[in-house]
């Protein structure tokens, strides 16, 4: 069994469902990310694990123990808040030692563990500063040390990098991941930033409107998305509605027939998912597709094309100066092609789940 287990965990606020029956196991030493758009229920899920929000249904188990009704301080969790929530009038060392004091750890042990936690996050020498005398990145590391120092069974991170600038975010992301792996911390992290989730976590949980859509590694989600929502949320994806007409032939809603993976039996509405980098584009004198726009992005170029009534985004390495593709203009005819196996058929969303 996982070190952290969510068993049919749900939360309603009045009549509205914030989290609907989430089942999840986080094995010892793994980092799992809850990922999804704003309002999908990821923060509420994390807060139920931490003990700040009482679940309406289901259970939370930590190290095999049912803690569903236990208060936060009795749960063996360490949490890093988005805002850091440092005590402004306490020094760095006092902030870090606070949890140990609450647990009545003796002075000598407390000092040694505080020193060790500060060393782990590379804050030695700043013990006596107040939080306001630190940079954002340093404050973030105090929050990490404060959560680490109690040696929790489960480490909880709520959007821990969202208050850092882009450059620092990349560095801190790697630091947290290295620390988590070195110490073997069982970790649940909430983020809406897919790059953060993809680079840090062993497994990702994609949520939408209170439900888990898919759980998997970054590769699973990117290469084998379960549905159009996951395909569109993790990385970019062309999602074309239509139906499989015959094995390997997909008829898009616009009428064009597109090659696709063999797929299940023909018939019924489905969605064709095609990643922009899997489409080849070439100038053509009479190609069936038209270029609408091309955007130079340095190493890559993004093309917006239209095949009949179907818009397609294509991303390719920027062609060399001699390549005729370099000189195509909006309105020009182009040919588009792809390996049929790169065009995956996904189930169309049921009607009641669309829009919103
Ligand atoms: P964000 O990324 O914006 O923080 P989230 O995925 O973390 O979003 P939650 O904060 O978990 O989403 O919210 C899930 C749903 O529950 C939302 O519709 C939200 O409005 C609702 N909700 C959250 N907390 C409360 C509350 N205390 N009272 C009523 N509704 C709430």
Structure description:
- The chain has 356 residues and is an alpha+beta fold.
- The protein has two domains: 4-223, Rossmann fold, CATH 3.40.50; 238-353, Nucleic acid-binding proteins (OB fold (Dihydrolipoamide Acetyltransferase, E2P), Beta Barrel), CATH 2.40.50.140.
- It contains eight helices and 20 strands.
- The protein has helices spanning 42-50, 92-102, 107-120, 136-148, 166-183, 194-200, 218-223, 228-233, and strands spanning 4-13, 16-26, 31-35, 57-62, 65-66, 77-80, 154-158, 186-191, 203-208, 211-216, 238-246, 249-252, 257-259, 269-274, 280-283, 289-296, 300-307, 310-317, 333-337, 344-347.
- It has a six-stranded mixed β-sheet with strand order 6-7-8-3-9-10, sandwiched between helices.
- Strand 4 (57-62) and strand 5 form a beta hairpin.
- Helix 2 (92-102) crosses helix 3 (107-120).
- The longest helix is centred in the middle third of the chain and has 18 residues, at 166-183.
- It is elongated and about 80 Å long.
- Residues 351-356 have low confidence and may be disordered.
- The structure holds adenosine-5'-triphosphate.
- The site of adenosine-5'-triphosphate (ATP) has 11 residues, from helix 1.
- Residues 4-234 form the ABC transporter domain.
- Belongs to the ABC transporter superfamily.
- This is ABC transporter ATP-binding protein.
- One of its GO terms (cellular component) is ATP-binding cassette (ABC) transporter complex.
- Keywords: ATP-binding, Nucleotide-binding, Transport.
